[in-house]
Amino acid sequence: MSADRSAFRPCGEQGDLLLVDQTDGVLTREFGGEKDADGDDLPMKLYIEAYGERAVDKPAPEGFAGTFMLEEALYAAPDGQTRGCDLPPQDYIVATRGNEPFWSAEVTEAALLWRQPDEPKEISIAAPQTQDAEGAVSYVAANSDHKIELFIEAQGCRDDMSGEYFAYAARATLDGKKYSGCARIGGRSF
């Protein structure tokens, strides 16, 4: 990202695509504003997971292999903060996490997995129940010892420690104790 234009390079490719931001400017809003000594905007390199498409009906501007129309930024982090393209596609449906207290949860086809530093450190409950609502989804899983509820909402969320941006916010309840954090959907496709 830079003040005059931004580029997008899909994982595994060598050429940059001109990025045309069709969102409400979420990346600029969340990550812009870094200035150099002269007060000019500094370019920033991000890893992003996004929905969008290549523009096939437009000729590519000089220096670009094509154009990428960014429709929705799902996740973004400063380059080097995440392994990004080096990670294999994830098999979770949704992954959530929060700070103070630290916690994380993953929903897969088979189970809901809860992790935290305190006891119980890890809980896995098979076959979570799902309920969809417009702009939100909830998961509930219970066994004889624990009940976990996750509520994922289409609302931008910023990790207050890492600075990562997520397109979804998360609320969780473990055995009646409430948690909040951010959520990320699984898989990767370009």
Structure description:
The chain is mostly beta strands and 190 residues long. It has one helix and 15 strands. The chain has a nine-stranded antiparallel beta sheet with strand order 8-7-6-5-15-14-11-10-9, with no helix packed on it. Strands 1, 2, 3, 4, 12 and 13 form a six-stranded mixed beta sheet that branches. The radius of gyration is 19 Å and the shape is elongated.
What keywords describe this structure?
nine-stranded antiparallel β-sheet; 15 strands; mainly beta; single chain; 190 residues; six-stranded mixed β-sheet; elongated
Give the biggest beta sheet: 9 strands, antiparallel
Q: Write out the strand line-up for the largest beta sheet, numbering strands in chain order.
A: 8-7-6-5-15-14-11-10-9
> Helix and strand string, N-terminal first?
EEHEEEEEEEEEEEEE
Number of strands: 15
Strand content: over 45%
| Tally of contiguous helical segments | 1
Distance between the termini: 19 Å
- Describe the global form: elongated
Give me the secondary-structure category.
Answer: mainly beta
Helix content: under 10%
What value does the Rg take, in angstroms?
A: 19 Å
The stretches of 5 or more residues where confidence is low (pLDDT under 50) are none
Mean pLDDT: 90
How do the strands and helices of this protein lay out in sequence?
Blueprint: E1 6-8, E2 17-21, H1 26-31, E3 46-54, E4 67-78, E5 94-98, E6 103-107, E7 111-115, E8 122-126, E9 129-133, E10 136-142, E11 147-153, E12 157-158, E13 165-166, E14 168-174, E15 177-185
Parallel strand pairs: 2-4
Antiparallel strand pairs: 1-2, 3-4, 4-13, 5-6, 5-15, 6-7, 7-8, 9-10, 10-11, 11-14, 12-13, 14-15
